[in-house]
Design a protein that fits this description.
By secondary structure, this protein is α/β, with parallel strands linked by helices. The protein has one domain: Nucleoside phosphorylase domain (Rossmann fold, 3-Layer(aba) Sandwich). It contains 7 helices and 10 strands.
Length: about 210
C-alpha cells in the first residue's frame, strides 16, 4: 500500500515523519490551513503522483468534544459543519439546502479498519471540518446538538476528502486532541502532547504496513 499523509502545518508533518522513521515509503506533506488549501494541495499532490497512491490520510491535531487531551480520534465521516447559509431561523447546512449529502464524506472502510486495529483505544465518530474553530460555550452547545456523533473538529479533513474523492483515492482522517472544544483558552492547550500522539499513531501505521 502506497500512502499519502496530508497535514496542515509543517510541525504536524515533522511529528508524523518522526514516527514513520527515515526509511518509510509513506509520503508526508503539509498543504496549508483550512478547507480550500487542503483540497487544492491534496488534489495537486494526487495529480502529480499519477495514480501512485492507494490511500490518503489526513493527520492533524484538533479540538475534542469529550476526549482526553493527547487522545486519538478517527473519522467515520468528515463533515463540513459550517458550510451553508444563515437564515432568520438559524444556520442551514448544505444538506438542508437541497444539495444532497454533499457536506458529509464517509471514509474508506479498509483504511478505517486498519487504523482501528492499530489504535484500539482511539474513539471513532464524525470529525467536523470548520472554517472558524469553536470558541464559545454557545457555539459548542449548538455543535453538539447539530452533530451529536462528532468526536472532534479540525479545519482540513473535508477538504482533503474532497481532493481524494475527485481523484478516486480512498480517504481517512485521524486527529489527536490538543484542546477541549469550548471557550478559547490557549493556556490549557496541550499541543506538545497532541503532536507526540501523532508520532505514536504514525509509528503504529508504519508497523502495520510492514508486518
Amino acid at each position: 500500500m502506497s500512502l499519502l499523509i496530508v497535514t496542515a502545518v509543517p510541525a504536524e508533518a515533522k511529528a508524523v515523519r518522526r514516527g514513520l522513521g527515515p526509511d518509510s515509503s509513506i509520503t508526508v506533506a503539509p498543504v496549508g490551513v483550512g478547507m480550500a488549501a487542503a483540497a487544492a494541495g491534496t488534489a495537486r499532490l494526487l495529480t502529480l503522483a499519477d495514480g501512485r497512491y492507494t490511500g490518503v490520510i489526513n493527520f492533524g491535531i484538533g479540538g475534542g468534544f469529550a476526549q482526553p487531551l493527547g487522545g486519538t480520534v478517527l473519522a467515520r465521516r468528515s463533515i463540513a459543519a459550517d458550510l451553508g447559509a444563515e437564515s432568520p431561523y438559524g444556520f442551514i447546512n448544505l444538506d438542508d439546502l437541497g444539495f444532497g449529502d454533499s457536506a458529509r464524506i464517509t471514509v474508506d472502510q479498509k483504511l478505517l479498519t486498519m487504523l482501528r486495529t492499530g489504535l484500539p483505544d482511539a474513539q471513532v465518530g464524525d470529525i467536523l471540518t470548520v472554517n472558524t474553530v469553536t470558541g464559545t460555550s454557545e457555539r459548542t452547545a449548538w455543535m453538539i446538538e447539530k452533530y451529536p456523533n462528532a468526536v472532534a473538529e479540525g479545519m482540513e479533513g473535508y477538504g482533503v476528502a474532497c481532493g481524494a474523492q475527485l481523484a478516486g483515492v480512498p480517504f481517512a482522517e485521524l486527529r489527536t486532541v490538543s484542546n477541549v472544544i469550548g471557550p478559547r483558552d490557549r493556556d490549557a492547550w496541550q499541543i506538545a502532547d497532541a503532536l507526540a500522539a501523532l508520532t505514536k499513531a504514525a509509528q503504529m501505521l508504519s508497523t502495520s504496513l510492514s508486518s
